[in-house]
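I hope you will forgive my troubling you with a question about protein structure. I should value your view on which stretches of the chain appear to form regular backbone elements. Here, with my thanks, is the record as I have it:
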Amino acid sequence: MRLLFTSMLLLLLLPATEMKRPGKAKALKGARLKLTRDRVRGVGRYGRSGPTSNCSELTESGEFFVDCHGRRFTSIPNSKTWSQEPKHLLLARNRIKVLHDGAFFGYQSLTSLDLQQNQISLVEDGAFHGLTQLTTLLLQHNRLGTLSEEALIPMPNLRYLRLYDNPWNCLCTMDSLIRTLQVPSNRNLGNHARCAKPIKLKNWKLKQVDPELLCKESNSTGEPHGDGTDPTDPAEPSPIRSKLDATTLCHTYLFPQIRMDCSNRGLTEVPTGIPHDAVHVDLSNNSIRNLKTRDFQGARSLRTLNLSKNYMEHIDRGSLSGLLHLRELDLSDNSLHFVQYGVLEDLYFLLKLKLGGNPWVCNYSIHYMVYWLRLHSGVRHSGLQCHSPPQHTGETVEEYVHSYNRECPKDRQQSRGDQDETDPELWNTAMEAQGEVEELEPSHLRMPQKYQIIRLS
């Protein structure tokens, strides 16, 4: 009995003994290391915010670019992720907070880098190391309060730097950056960027701040007093701008084509400063009531223009002039009753026109739109439907115009009070001609009948 019990105990302990053998333990440890290594690689390739396979790898004008905007990334994807080294990397609208040293290792071929609309509050000095070919860096719409000139040194070919819509703290730590931005040859670096504090410098452009004044708020140890403000200095009012500027107000994406997203910005008018090379402009979901002459002056490269979901009631005749290359125009969901004569005359190459959701009034004013569409048969349009008057509600505007033209002569005939005048058998008679002559000329100028009046039905 004791021998049987000992045998069973040995059988139970045997698996545990096997697991403790050096070879097995080493193999198990190796498997765990491999799994961990694969997971680490997975972070570089997929990230905690979703797979980078959602990014688009495309070629435009012979240049390879990667579009990862709006993918919820919290860090820069590994350069080995892509099939080849990109020339352009789009990382806008993600959740990146810090750019660490060496963040762009392996991206030596980059010429443009879009980091706008993230949550970046810190850029370490070596973050852009290796980006010697970079010409365009977009850092607008982030949370940067300070940035050192040291961060820009690794980019000797930088030509365009956008820094606006960041809460810049214009104190001594910004001295080197501001001096760099103010070098005349750097005219496209840091335009429109403004101080958020101290109060006495609020809304001053970085290009206009005197660098000599920045360190005056520091004590002997070089630390700023509190938040860098002087309580004895009265707060200066913010500069009053007569009209909002599209560059600072809208989200501008440069590659592969310049696209401006000005939607949901509470606009009551079209902002100024739309670049001449902007290709797509979205002004939807605002409160614009009128398009004015020269609103799009200079925007000669526009291909698509979205003005939907505003409160637009009127379009001036010259508001769309010069948009010779426009392909798509969206005027849907506004308050338009008609489009006055001449508004569409410059849209020679328009292909798509959205008109739905407007209270179109079917009277003579609507005819211009229909005749223009007939002359431009290649334009695909939608939503042109009568809203009023009640007898035409629900009809397409084309049906209304057709019925108007068909019934117009009958209407003219019925407007005559004298039934005899509507009788075709009495037309072109001597009595009819005599009556017309007496109507046309006063009695003292009447001459013997020398011409004939012909009436056409």
Summary: The longest strand covers residues 56-60. The helical segments are 2-19, 22-45, 175-181, 246-249, 367-375, 397-414, 430-440. DSSP finds seven helices and 21 strands in the chain. The chain has a mean pLDDT of 78.
